[in-house]
Amino acid sequence: MEGMPGKIVKVPKDLVSLDMLKMRGLTVVGACLYTGVQSGRMFLQEHVLLFVLEGVYIVKNGEEEHTVRKNEMVLLQKATVVEYEKYGEENSEHILEYMMFFLQDELLHEFVKMSQFSSVERNESIPASVIPVNERLLSYLASLKPYFKVSEGIQDELLKLKMLELLFNILDADPVLMQQILKLKQLRPTSIVEVVEQNILNPVSLQDLAYLSGKSLSAFKREFRKIYNEPTFQWIRNRRLDKAKELLTHSELSVTEVCLATGFENVSHFSKVWKKRFGSPPSALRQGLSNRSLHQA
């Protein structure tokens, strides 16, 4: 997934290429069927359950990368930036078909009451893993397809029943996955600190961070200043430069690789802000370390 283009999708707000089903103004299901290859980044404001029916959908978050193929699914946690690449395979005429379900707390709470399923309190983070989709879930997904043709006329109550049906099918297919889904409901609202720390090395803007935290840009900046006692842009840039200095000092990565690994989008800007803070270009640090090693040898 190296060299990924800069296409950015805010999920679910910007999913204009998908057929959508909505309930009380909230997006709950999106489906897509097309050919070709697409790649970019998704900014997840909601928890997402992704099913692939044809083709391949690759998602990467930090060091974790998961390849979801035909009749597989993966659970993705909100307030994260996910790099993706998706395409159809040759043996299926390059068709890519998938569905995305957005899991709101209200729905999960209602499912718990109806199912009387007791979730286990867990303190560890939720790992993303690729899980096979069984025949019962495949039949459920097929039953949704007619609804996309008449999406405007579907009542909220019917759509809620279909979403609850999905959760009951998952409980039957994989109780561990259901534990993971209900763990999402137990999470407190995502804080600014968590959003910033999780995405500090991702090439995200302040608008992106505000979106991930569910706040307006002005509210995000105001709360950030209260927490860190420093302007948002300046604090984030300095943290990235600190990490870049650590990598240039203790790794074999090139200046370009360090630039991209620490959230800077191009080397010229990276070199400019580096020199402004440290007084010399980043290449000078690497050259100085090289000369010192030769001298000691």
Descriptive tags:
297 residues; alpha+beta; Arc Repressor Mutant, subunit A; 2 domains; 5-stranded mixed sheet; 11 helices; 24% strand; disordered N terminus; AraC_XylS_family_regulators
Structural features, described:
There is one protein chain. The chain has 2 domains: 8-186, Sandwich (Jelly Rolls), CATH 2.60.120; 192-296, Homeodomain-like (Arc Repressor Mutant, subunit A, Orthogonal Bundle), CATH 1.10.10. It contains 11 helices and 11 strands. It has helices spanning 105-115, 135-149, 156-173, 175-186, 192-199, 206-212, 217-228, 232-250, 255-261, 267-278, 282-296, and strands spanning 8-11, 19-23, 26-35, 37-44, 47-54, 56-61, 64-68, 72-76, 80-87, 95-103, 130-132. The strands form 2 sheets. Strands 2-3-10-5-8-11 form a 6-stranded antiparallel sheet. A 5-stranded mixed sheet has the order 1-4-9-6-7. The protein is globular and about 65 Å long. Residues 1-6 have low confidence and may be disordered. Keywords: DNA-binding, Transcription, Transcription regulation. This is AraC family transcriptional regulator.
